[in-house]
Design goal:
single chain, alpha/beta, Rossmann fold, Phenylalanyl-tRNA Synthetase, Chain B, domain 1, 2 domains, 7-stranded mixed β-sheet, 3-stranded antiparallel β-sheet, 14 helices, 14 strands, binds S-adenosylmethionine
Length: about 350
């Protein structure tokens, strides 16, 4: 049993299912619409044309079909839409036609029914590889790192956040070679652990995977890396691995490129599909502001108040205003509602919070 839904500018036939799970025939999760929105905005914001794109684990084909419909005209030279499941391939073909895309007559669209690693390793490489798996991306990282082109973009989703965020520390150690920590910062810690793991795989092949946009949302984490080739670049990436508050090792460098974060937000504001999507705009706005501040970790105002026995928790925006007046950077963080990203020293922040209470 199937039904037709809309996502972005496209229509899609998907299986009717009581629950979103691996068992639904062909997988489709509407919550991941935002993951796909951001992929489109990011690729449209980058100065890249004629890309060879690999949608490695395509399921219903939703991502590729949206790329074909929503990426700017000159972006795609070739797009491979792959899944090892035959049911997926049938649905991908149906969904292409549903959206008036006639893949048989269009040489740039190639549908493949291969194991992902076989597909990657038997290819000459790609400018964009999207890994969107069930759970961990681990099985696909080695081949993807080998086949990502110079200056190419590697996009990775991980949905095994309970390991990365510290519910299962042994699993994290085994799969991501690092110690997580379950506390207010766990989503940022987990994302940084994931980034470092992928960078280590890249470094083996003298590829420096530099995060240009990364985030944690709902049940998943997502990172876009630019592959800057070369031994020195790879060494420089590894130099930024280390510990933070006894979790790690993890990536201690930037999570977002500031210019790109601004450009993604601004193109969402201008885009007729995205400009009325408040959730997306709000999320991108927070990241745009967050990307201006270079810090590992953030402050949690309610944690500080409880630790220092401050009874009245001040409003986050008031504190942000005060920090900025003192000349420090400050913003919300997408990682946590009560969080505050700032480069202000903790003691100065505590004073601000205490003074605020006294007014
Ligand atoms: C989470 S779904 C992908 C969702 C899709 N990217 C989207 O945006 O809706 C994962 C897909 O990977 C496929 N898959 C899993 N392991 C694979 C492998 N080794 N090779 C090829 N496809 C694989 C599954 O059949 C499934 O359709």
């Amino acid at each position: 049993m199937h039904r037709i839904i809309n996502e972005g500018s496209i229509q899609l036939k998907i299986p009717k299912a009581e629950k979103i799970s691996k068992e639904m025939g062909v997988f489709y999760n509407p919550i991941m619409g935002l993951n796909r929105d951001i992929s489109i905005l990011l690729l449209n914001s980058l100065n890249k044309k004629n890309m060879q794109i690999c949608d490695l684990l395509a399921a219903s084909g939703v991502r590729s079909i949206r790329f074909l419909k929503e990426l700017n005209k000159n972006k795609i030279k070739k797009i491979i839409i792959n899944d090892y499941d035959k049911k997926s391939i049938r649905l991908i073909k149906y969904n292409l036609k549903l959206n008036d895309i006639h893949s048989k007559n269009d040489k740039k669209i190639i549908i493949r029914n291969k194991d992902a690693n076989f597909l990657l390793l038997s290819s000459a490489g790609f400018d964009y590889i999207d890994i969107d798996p069930f759970g961990t991306p681990n099985p696909f990282l080695d081949a993807a790192c080998k086949r990502i082109a110079r200056n190419g973009i590697l996009a990775v989703t991980a949905t095994d956040t309970s390991a990365l965020c510290g519910t299962f520390p042994k699993v994290c150690l085994r799969k991501y070679w690092a110690i997580p920590k379950k506390n207010a910062l766990m989503h940022e810690t987990g994302l940084r652990i994931l980034i470092r793991k992928i960078q280590l795989i890249g470094a083996q092949y003298e590829k420096a995977l530099v995060p240009i946009f990364s985030y944690s949302k709902e049940h998943y984490m997502r990172v876009f890396f630019r592959n800057e080739k070369g031994k020195n670049n790879a060494d420089n990436v590894i130099r930024l691995h280390g510990f933070f508050n006894d979790a790690g090792p993890m990536w201690l460098g930037k999570l977002f490129d500031k210019k790109l974060s601004r450009s993604i937000y601004e193109s969402a504001l201008r885009n007729k599909i995205f400009k009325s999507n408040k959730e997306l705009l709000n999320f991108l706005h927070i990241i745009k502001e967050e990307s201006k501040i270079n810090s590992v970790g953030f402050y949690d105002i309610s944690d500080i108040c409880s630790k220092y026995k401050i009874k009245i928790i001040p409003k986050k925006f008031k504190i942000i205003e005060k920090i900025r007046k003192l000349g420090y950077g400050a913003s919300e963080t997408h990682f946590k509602g009560e969080g505050l990203r700032s480069n202000i020293p903790i003691n100065t922040l505590i004073n601000i919070i205490k003074q605020h209470k006294n007014k």
